[in-house]
Amino acid sequence: MLEIKNQKLTVSIDSHGAELTHVVNNKTGYEYIWNNVAWPKHAPILFPAIGRSTDDEYLINGKNYTMQQHGFVSDYDFEVICHRDTELILSFKGNEETLKSYPFAFELRVSFILNINQLMVNFEVENLSDNILSYSLGFHPAFNVEKEFEKNRLSIKPDRTQLEKFEIVKNPFPYRSGGVRKLTVSGSSFDLDRQIFKEGLVIMTDKVNHVILQGRSYVVKMDLSDFPYLCLWTKENEDLPFLCLEPFFGLPDMINEKQELAKKLGNDRLKVGEIKKYQCKLTFE
To answer: What's the chain's average pLDDT?
Structure first.
């Protein structure tokens, strides 16, 4: 486990998957990140896919390639590029094994930088192949919330009178139906309710720049301006005190429609040799 620290926060990252595992308030001892075997992950990185592909496959020029749910980088060890008191940079490059399911050369760099009570999580994708790189990129952090779920409040910016989400079909994995549905809440600031997640994960259709999650003992603020979608998730039908706030650049597949990677809705794309950077800024109070 790798650690960065300042006077306000102590942060732990697992080089396996470059996964954020702990964010602790040094003064109060409060742990912001979920750590429980009931859902044994903490903050996986999703690349080069988000969600599950139809039949666990997708297409490149009509040829089938297998792809597991949420891609594969969370299964690999990342190389440590830089490790200072308040900064950590990790890197993963595609290899012979990943080429079998994703026939592109690439490098994914993830950096964690502490500044007072803020943690900047930066992602950098470089296309090292000789073709256009089409991919999804997601960050899946789970935050501890008050045990009484309804005692937690979520605020989404910019404000909207009615929030909308992509309609999700569970079969048993989440796919998009192609439809859009209204959230069963009023406005864009509301108390949490497990009924929100009765149909599974919630992916907002409108652009979200900031989200605030707060309870009696904590506040987490997220700036996800670099990402087009926000996904909310907790384990449906289970009374577990966590909520995932997930910046997405990409979307789950349409149900029963095998996707051509180059045309997949929500994906980002890089030209040969191009690099693109994304940032998720977290503020902890």
So the answer is: 95
Catalogue the long-range contacts made by 18-26 (C-beta closer than 8 Å, 24 or more residues apart).
18/45, 18/73, 18/78, 18/90, 18/92, 18/110, 19/43, 19/44, 19/45, 19/74, 20/112, 20/121, 20/141, 23/119, 23/282, 23/284, 25/284
Domain that holds residue 239: 2-284
CATH number at residue 251: 2.70.98.10
User: For position 170, what pLDDT does the model report?
Assistant: 77
| pLDDT at residue 251, as a whole number | 94
Smallest CA-to-CA distance from 70 within 102, 93, 92 is with 102
* Burial of residue 56 (number of CB atoms within 10 Å: 0-12, 13-18, 19+): middle
pLDDT tens per residue, range 227-274:
999 999 999 889 999 999 999 999 999 888 888 999 999 999 999 999
| CA-closest candidate to residue 198, choices 233, 164, 229, 231 | 233
Which residues touch 123 (CB under 8 Å, ≥6 apart)?
A: 45, 108, 109, 110, 137, 139, 277, 278, 279, 280
The count of domains in the chain is 1
Rounded CA-CA distance 157/71 in Å is 29
The separation between CA 130 and the C-alpha centre of its own chain, rounded to angstroms, equals 28
Task: List pLDDT tens digits, range 46-61.
Answer: 999 998 888 889 999 9
